[in-house]
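Hey, I'm writing a tutorial for new members on how sequence and structure tokens pair up, and I'd like a real worked example in the thread rather than a made-up one. If someone can provide the structure for the chain below, I'll link this post from the tutorial.
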Amino acid sequence: MSVGMSALGVMQGNFIVNTAWVIASGVVIVVLAYLISMLVTLRIRKISAYRLVTE
């Protein structure tokens, strides 16, 4: 975080980070990524291997 803030000109800063927010953010990102991947693969799931072979 200090590298990103020093690029903006902030050399020293005390940030109070709540652990619950960090954990909740991680969980939300994982769940959102899972839901997006399920939506993207919905069309692929409808394709049947048997139908591909018989065509």
